[in-house]
Amino acid sequence: MQLVSAIDRTRYNIFEWRYNLSIPMKLVMAVAMAVMTGLLAQVRVFVEWSPVPITGQTLAVLLAGVLLGRRWGGASMAIYAVLGVAGVPWFTGWTSGLGATGGYLIGFILAALFIGYVTDKYIKSRYFLSMLGVMMLASAVLIYVPGIIWLALWLKAVTGTSFGIIPLFTMGVIPFLAGDAVKCVTAAIITKTVIPKKDYGTCND
Questions:
Q1: What is the pLDDT of residue 115?
Q2: Among 31-40, 133-142, 168-177, 183-192, which stretch is predicted with the lowest mean pLDDT?
Q3: pLDDT tens profile 102-125
Q4: Per-residue 3-state assignment (H helix, E strand, C coil) for 88-110
Q5: What whole-number distance in Å separates Cα of residue 55 and Cα of residue 93?
Q6: What pLDDT band is residue 203 in, cutting at 50, 70 and 90?
Q7: Which residue segment(s) compose the domain that 81 sits in?
Q8: Fewest beta carbons less than 10 Å away: which of 26, 38, 45, 134?
Q9: Which of 15-24, 54-63, 129-138, 148-157 shows the lowest per-residue confidence on average (mean pLDDT)?
Q10: Rounded to 5°, angle at Cα 195 from 191 and 199
Q11: What is the number of structural domains in the chain?
Q12: What is the rounded distance in angstroms from the CA atom of residue 185 to the CA atom of residue 187?
């Protein structure tokens, strides 16, 4: 019982410390999360019929808002996207610039903001099943939707051909469903394990 209490107190202290950090230190942590996203982006599996590879970076996206709060979690993904487009080679395959994955980058920012907001505001969301639902919703709507919209525009620009919804889903959604489900489960387990189940002052974070 004492061990459980000590673990709970440690988790609370860590997140309270994170919440009370200065803005420069929060920026450093946001950059660190962006770097982690870039490293996980190098874990990739190519899909023969799609210009979008399966990568590990979504795990960092799902955890960004949980670990840093909605503002700085979203900021970390914005840093990752903006600097990568500007030329920092930390996209998949150590590349940079806009390509077929531009919509997913937008989705990463939206997902981190959403997950961070829900985690900060609703303590009940910090349990496994609740967080799993939140993360699966974020993946399905906030990442996939802008991802396939951008993919459709990119394919039209590159090939001159308009693709229907089924080919777009085949290229931009279906290959990632199983992997994203695993990442959502993993991220939900991490969330349940590390985040305290009481308020640590996140309402204004």
A1: 96
A2: 168-177
A3: 999 999 999 999 999 999 888 888
A4: CCCECCCECCCCCCHHHHHHHHH
A5: 10
A6: very low
A7: 2-204
A8: 45
A9: 15-24
A10: 135
A11: 1
A12: 6
Which residue has 């889903």 as its token pair?
A: 169
SS3 45: strand
**Verdict on whether the full-model pTM lies above 0.85:** yes
CATH of residue 84's domain is 1.10.1760.20
Using the Cα atoms of residue 195, residue 199, residue 201 and residue 205 in order, give the sign of their dihedral.
positive
Average pLDDT over residues 154-179: 88
Q: How many CA atoms lie within 13 A of 62 on its CB side?
A: 27
Q: For all residues of the chain together, what is the average pLDDT?
A: 89
C-alpha 107/C-alpha 120 separation (Å) is 20
Tell me if residue 159 falls in helix, strand or coil: helix
Cβ atoms of 107 and 142 within 8 Å: the answer is yes
Q: Which two tokens stand for residue 132?
A: 């799993």
Alpha-carbon distance values, 4 to 1, 7, 11, 135 (Å): 5, 5, 11, 27
Query: Could you give the CA distance from residue 194 to residue 148 in angstroms, rounded to a whole number?
Result: 33
Instruction: Return the structure tokens found at 183.
Output: 């990442």
